[in-house]
Design goal:
The complex is a heterodimer of chains A (219) and B (219). Chain A contains 8 helices and no strands. Chain A has 219 residues and is mostly helical. Chain A has a single domain (2-211), classed as MetI-like (MetI-like fold), CATH 1.10.3720. By secondary structure, chain B is mainly alpha-helical. Chain B has a single domain (5-214), classed as Orthogonal Bundle (MetI-like fold), CATH 1.10.3720.10. Chain B has helices at residues 5-44, 49-63, 67-77, 87-112, 116-124, 129-159, 171-182, 186-214. In chain B, helix 1 packs antiparallel against helix 6, helix 3 (67-77) crosses helix 4 (87-112) and helix 6 runs antiparallel to helix 8. Chain B starts with a helix and ends in a 5-residue tail after the last helix. The chains are: A mainly alpha (219), B mainly alpha (219). The A-B interface holds A 56-57, 59-66, 68-69, 72-73, 76-78, 150, 153-158, 160-161, 167-168, 171-172, 175, 181-182, 185-186, 188-189, 192-193, 196-197 and B 1, 61, 64-70, 72-73, 76-77, 80, 158-162, 165, 172, 176, 179, 185-186, 189-190, 192-193, 196-197, 200-201.
Chain lengths: 219, 219
């Protein structure tokens, strides 16, 4: 019995690494999403081109390839990353590209009259974006962001293949030490599912909180 | 970082071997996902609450957990209960099941989009349940969802590198083995990335065409 609790401890350690990766990856993804998403609706051709290239590149190649590239090829270019850094970088940039399209779609979904109202109130482009457009667009983005965060959580399992000790990695460790297969993999699956449920619950709560005071605004 | 074209030509045949397996896995996985998705979508409409409830929980669970762990589960746990699968078959089952839960949502939307009048007309013409589905509902529901289905099949294609983790000799695994033999990561990894990028850029064109051809997808 004590043996099993030891193995459960290993899996919990893995869960901590997975949570850490998910949080850090999400922060990077969020930053990239806003940079690239606003870049796509920019007035300047060059910004639009850069943002489009970034999005197409990271959505076009798989997360797995990006991670391996970051971990194995970048050192040859003189940039050595720890597995954690490579993981956060690849996850954040990959999911950021998907979320950027969400940001773009949400900004475009805000009605024309809102933009006209900004002009009428003599707000600058940036002021209008900050005070009028984004607060409304954010609410549209939120549910899809939640889905993206769950995709990111699921994608973190890939980092086990570059020897980062996350949940999936620990499941393999337990499997190779005990020879038991059902226990480690089932408990890890359940842990992932629980984490996904927590994310979707958190996003729903946040959505309700942010929708407060926006009654009557078209969503 | 120096790029060696001779080395590229030397490893090309091996990589092409991998590409074949990658494409094979994608096609088989897509077929399975299309069938599983339809099964889940129909199962969730079942009148027996026990069936519909348990199927939707099962689908939720599969969607909330990483494909990689599911592949490990199929590959390592099933042999313990006497089901020994070759890696490629295990991989295809994993891909098909995982993406089946996504395509199920597409089917659901497609089926819900068939106007009520069609159901009533089928009843008025005295068609039984099976005939209603095969002759009235599905022929109208499926064409509009082809672009959305194709979208998931392309997403699946980008996840096939995960199969390398359960020893399927697809593109990523071939690239890794060449990289480990010659200790040159730049060319194999970059080629894998380039290959995925080219295929997904081509598939964007295909997707546009499908959307044009089968049009009227709901937004």
């Amino acid at each position: 019995m004590t043996q099993w609790s030891g193995y459960l401890g290993l899996i919990l350690q893995g869960a901590l690494v997975t949570i850490e990766l998910t949080l850090m990856g999400s922060v990077l993804a969020l930053i990239m999403a806003f940079l690239a998403g606003m870049g796509r609706v920019s007035r300047f051709f060059i910004l639009r081109a850069i943002a489009t290239a970034y999005i197409e590149f990271f959505r076009g190649t798989s997360i797995f390839v990006q991670l391996f590239w970051a971990y194995f090829v970048l050192p040859f270019a003189g940039l050595s990353l720890t597995p954690l850094q490579a993981g956060v970088l690849a996850l954040g940039l990959n999911v950021g590209a998907y979320a950027a399209e969400v940001v773009r779609g949400a900004i475009l979904s805000v009605g024309r009259e809102q933009y006209e109202a900004c002009t009428a109130l003599n707000l600058g482009r940036w002021q209008g974006m900050r005070h009028v457009i984004l607060p409304q667009a954010l609410l549209v983005m939120l549910p899809t962001f939640g889905n993206n965060a769950i995709e990111l959580l699921k994608a973190t399992s890939v980092v086990s293949l570059i020897s980062l000790a996350d949940l999936t990695f620990q499941a393999q460790v337990v499997r190779s030490q005990t020879g038991s297969t059902l226990m480690p993999f089932l408990s890890v699956l359940i842990t992932y599912f629980a984490l996904a449920l927590i994310i979707s619950w958190g996003v729903r709560t946040l959505e309700r909180r942010m929708a407060r005071g926006l009654d009557g605004v078209r969503i | 970082m120096d790029w060696d074209w001779d080395f590229v030509w030397q490893i090309m045949p091996t990589l092409i071997q991998g590409v074949k397996i990658t494409i094979l896995a994608t096609i088989l996985g897509s077929i399975l996902a299309a069938i599983v998705g339809l099964g889940i979508a129909l199962g969730r409409r079942s009148e027996n609450p026990l069936v519909s409830r348990s199927i939707s929980w099962f689908a939720e669970f599969i969607r909330g957990t990483p494909l990689l762990v599911q592949l490990y589960f199929i590959f390592y746990v099933l042999p313990d209960i006497g089901i020994l699968l070759p890696p490629l078959v295990a991989g295809v089952i994993g891909l098909g099941l995982h993406y089946g839960t996504y395509t199920a949502e597409v089917y659901r939307a497609g089926i819900d989009n068939v106007p009520r009048g069609q159901w009533e007309a089928a009843k008025a013409c005295n068609l039984n349940g099976r005939h209603t589905w095969t002759h009235i509902i599905l022929p109208q529901a499926i064409p509009p969802m082809i672009p959305a289905l194709a979208n998931y099949f392309i997403a699946m294609f980008k996840e096939t590198p995960l199969l390398s983790a359960i020893t399927v000799l697809e593109l990523m695994n071939q690239a890794k083995s060449v990289a480990n033999t010659y200790y040159r990561y730049i060319e194999p990894m970059t080629l894998v990335g380039a290959f995925f990028l080219v295929i997904s850029l081509c598939s964007v064109v295909l997707l546009r065409w499908l959307e044009h051809r089968y049009g009227r997808i709901e937004r």
